[in-house]
Amino acid sequence: MFDFTGRTAIVTGAASGIGEAIALELAVAGAHVIVSDLDADACGRVCAAILDRGGKATPCVADVSDPEAQAALVACAEEETGALHLAVNNAGIGGAQAPTGEYPLDAWRQVMSVNLDGVFYGMRAQIPAMLRAGGGAIVNITSILGSVGFANSSAYVASKHGVVGLTKTAAMEYAQQGIRINSVGPAFIQTPLLTDNLDQEMLDGLAGLHPAGRIGTPEEVSAMVCFLMSDRASFITGSYHLVDGGYTAP
Ligand code: NAP
Fold it and tell me: How far is ligand 1, taken at its centre, from the CA of residue 177, in Å?
């Protein structure tokens, strides 16, 4: 459906769930994907899956909450392929569940450092490389919780609202220099982030919150991300795109 031949793409959090689906779809569509996550073996597994399908991939371990690791990730992309054109800042964590008045301070910092600082550090390293490449596209993964609240998740909700505003601001700054920057807000998606933490009864309860009557799949999020990264989205920048089965419609 899309053609990313000749483009290099960084995907963070690419060894699981939504990031893995995005890495696979970008690679099948011709991109050389820098598969980045915390665990080297997991990055290697996704790269092997891409190579099996005839695609191009390079593993690169990086903690998105470390600005030096983000700079090294961009350097890896440029050294491997000559330029960086695309980036998906996807890595994220759920964090502790507690009312705001009792929210643990260390959990707050941890969520912010991965979900919000991580996107800032990512773009801060990626944008100069994309300017060197003559332009590019960035998608930041936020959530439906970038626009509505969710009890007992103040850090997560605040971090995801932050990503929406950060995306809009950076998009305005670089719109005339050939870099488009958008965010994507999934509702509840069937990934280890959910399935490792919730039993089937809880998953069924979450499904009922969506007018579609189910939670989504990683591939349904990837479809939106790949569209926004593609030249078909050439007039789309600074906006926040929900993939939510109607969750925020009521
Ligand atoms: P996932 O299956 O847990 O995958 C996230 C990946 O990111 C994991 O491989 C994780 O590694 C990695 N990661 C965690 N901290 C990192 C760090 N500091 N640096 C680099 N990588 C790190 O989660 P997912 O559901 O695909 O979520 C992907 C994104 O979508 C997140 O931003 C999440 O907030 C967002 N999202 C998810 C849902 C949902 O319902 N699933 C809904 C809305 C938005 P480890 O496994 O080793 O921690």
Answer: 30
